[in-house]
Amino acid sequence: MARIEFPEETRKRVDAIGNADFVLGVAGAIHPEDLRAKAGEWVRSIAPTPMKAVVVYAGLEALNGAEPTGDGLEFLPYPLPARDPSVGPWAEISMAQRSVLGLASLLNARCCTVVHNDLTALHDPDLRQLAASALEGKCDVAMPVYPEKKYEGLINKSLLAPLSRALFGRRVRNPLAFDFCASARMLAKLGDIGVERSQPGPLLLWPSNVVAMESGQICEAFIGATHTVQTDGLELSAVLAQLAGGIFQEVEACAVHWQRVRGSQPAETCGPSNGVAAVTDTDGDPVDARPLIDSFVLGSRNLEEVWRLVLPPVSLFELKRLTRLAPEQFQMPDELWARVVYDFALAFRLRRIGRSHLLGALTPLYLGWVASYAQEVAHATVIEADERVERLARVFEENKPYFVSRWRWPDRSN
User: Fold this and answer.
1) What is the pLDDT of residues 146-169, one digit of tens each?
2) Which of 118, 153, 244, 277 has the highest local Cβ count within 10 Å?
3) Fold annotation for 2-269
């Protein structure tokens, strides 16, 4: 394993602190005074008895007046790497999360709660349920279910979550989470970077996938926090490329594991809340799918040569058929979309064309799926839309043998 390296002054601070019962870590830059005002109360709220807690935050500046308090709360800064616009916001968050988890491992913490640097999750009482589940040893990682309306989080719903579920065998709604809690057993695994993952490109952290590969326990709880990632200047194609590229990289790195996985297991629910039931409206007026369909049709014309390098003839035939449909009849079958994603994941591994070019060619296909989904759930409630997403996830699982076969014998279908 390749452990994250920390500067000498950080390691000295770790040695001075010694061991900790609990670590609250902020994944990203935060004003120290804002953190100090909120951290102590939240940490004390999750345990009825005093415990030694450390608050880990980004930045090597001193935290004025942050000497150990009577209840054992201490503050530990860590450095953020120089900002690299080419990496993308999700990779930066994942690097910060790994730093937090790595320090928690060095402190021999019983549990570590990682939160987004907007601190929104600290205002939600249900985050305490996540932390308590990991602290009490009920699970190895506790993952959040965020409140989302039916047109929100579609890259996750259509690609990240179903692909992660099908390959790694755990039904987790948000595998790329901003807030989560990890037990002592998983801190070193989550904070380290395996040799197989040391490859160029964005390196995202998928906590539930790591725990699944270690045969650990995963639980989920609804938290009311909502986060906004700064994507200023990024077009949809760039966002999709960073996220799809991140999960495809994980697929390539962990192929030895996921090829042995069959079926999926539900995550245990911790806490009484239900994220879907919390949002019951129909999200107002339906989305106009025509511009999305137009983008799909235009992409089929301009990217046909690229798609031929990635997709087998039967998929190309189905996509061509979709371009001839009237807008009101447009519907992309779940099986077609699942196989498209699998074929792009394979092409990402084979590098028959440049990865940036490959991921860019996925955008019109994704917009075609969004158009189909938008028309299907136009008058559905959020719960009905959630059931629609569940059906898609099951189709990804059913088509996993197709992916395994193509992964092992990539030239057979072409």
Assistant:
1) 999 999 999 999 999 999 999 999
2) 244
3) Spore Coat Polysaccharide Biosynthesis Protein SpsA; Chain A (3.90.550)
